[in-house]
Amino acid sequence: MKKVIGLLTAVGLMTAPLVQASTVTVSGSTSVAHVMEVLAENYQNTTNKSVEVQGTGSSAGIRAAKDGTSMIGMSSRNIKPNELTPKTKEIVIARDGIAAAVNKANPVKDLTQEQISKIYRGEIKNWSEVGGEARPIVVVTRENGSGTRGAFEEIMDLQRSVNGHTVTAITTSAQVGNGNGMIKTMVANNPYAIGYISLGSVDDSLNALSVNGVAATDNNIAAGDYQIARPFIALMNDDAPATAKSFIEYIMSEDGQRIVAEEGYIRVQ
Q: Which GO terms describe its molecular function (predicted)?
């Protein structure tokens, strides 16, 4: 009996890696994960091939692709040269705007980029300074390592150098939320809050501000008129399994890009 159990265990150990290898693993940006999960579901329904998507943050996704702990990494910020190896490739699968969002009760509908930057630096502290009520502004930001935060800081000039190191210039009094969902909840529940989220995650629970008089819309991003925008990037090593490469091919196909557009993002093909 012991020999039979031992044989079955050995067979299980030999087949387990094969099962795992057939599953495409994807991890990284929670913003990219939103559309990636829909792409994965449709891909699975079409091909009967398994895809697992985990939202772990852009920095974690970049590392996962680099060291091979995930077949595909996801980033919603530009990637620094020292974060990749020569065999790691970047594929822009979509483009997305970052919406500066306020509570639906807030009368402010438009801000300049400079005003938003000053709010996040803590230089503008009251809504009355930008045409709103005489109430303190509650600044809400994403967590460190978030691709949305990294892109927002870069675009909005919210970084500074300290002893040769680049650090955030966002006010230390800012409240921090993990993920687009938490930011939406925090802003929706506070009439004096301002946050930033992926444009594809905007819904009726809050208002996306116009910036420099330009509405945060797909058409304005595609035309280059709305400036707070960033790429959605998939990362994959040259030696990634064929199953992972097939999934990327699907994402870049007409069907995949149609889903990208249906989910509120800008297609790249």
A: phosphate ion binding
- 106 Cβ partners below 8 Å, 6+ apart? 127, 132, 191, 192, 207
Please tell me whether the overall predicted TM-score, pTM, comes out greater than 0.85 for this model: no
The structural domains of the chain, ordered by start, are 2-95+232-262 (3.40.190.10), 97-229 (3.40.190.10)
Dihedral Cα 218, 221, 223, 226, nearest 10 deg? 130
Q: Other CB atoms closer than 10 Å to residue 1's CB: what's the count?
A: 5
> What does each of the 269 residues of the chain score in pLDDT, given as a tens digit?
434 434 333 444 344 444 445 899 999 999 899 999 999 999 999 999 999 999 999 999 999 999 999 999 999 998 988 998 999 999 999 998 999 999 999 999 999 999 999 999 999 999 999 999 999 999 999 999 898 999 999 999 999 988 888 899 999 999 999 999 999 999 999 999 999 998 888 999 999 999 999 999 988 988 889 999 999 999 999 999 999 999 999 999 999 999 999 998 899 98
> What is the C-alpha to C-alpha distance for residues 25 and 14, in angstroms, rounded to an integer?
20
Cα 155 to Cα 175: distance, rounded to the nearest angstrom: 20
Grouping H, G, I as helix, E, B as strand and the rest as coil, residue 159 is: strand
Instruction: Scan for tokens 């009368």, then name that residue.
Output: 107
Burial 94-117 (b: 16+ CB within 10 A, else e): bbbbbbbbbbeebebeebeeebbb
**3-state DSSP assignment of residue 37:** helix
End-to-end CA distance of the chain: 59
What is the C-alpha separation between 109 and 241, in angstroms, rounded? 48
